[in-house]
């Protein structure tokens, strides 16, 4: 597997992100436009993971505040799940964010993405009150990890 640090302009990231959006249509239902607005942002810190030169997963982060990076667009192609790819992406994103001076991480996910929530909990994330645009959104779970 090969990890590539890039931006959201990367064509492979765009393809994976589009697949993720299709996947989320069923999950987010009527709120999909709301979430799409906040997910389709320009990211300067994006990771794409390749297996045999094929993009199989991605993730990114952006500055939330001076000390906190917000993890965004974590996705592993459905055919590639169960191989530890998401854990690898998350770990590398956190390392990269630390290099950039961040010492805590936040994220938002759907309560329906139970395997994602399990991964985040297993790696030290804890549930927090919804932040920012997610305050009052019932189909949203927010988590944080302090270093």
TrEMBL record:
Superkingdom assignment: Bacteria
Domain N-acetyltransferase: 1-147
Keywords of this entry: Acyltransferase, Transferase
GO MF annotation terms: acyltransferase activity, transferring groups other than amino-acyl groups
Cross-referenced PROSITE patterns: GNAT
Protein name as it appears in the record: GNAT family N-acetyltransferase
Annotated organism of origin: Flavobacterium amnicola
Taxonomic classification: Bacteria, Pseudomonadati, Bacteroidota, Flavobacteriia, Flavobacteriales
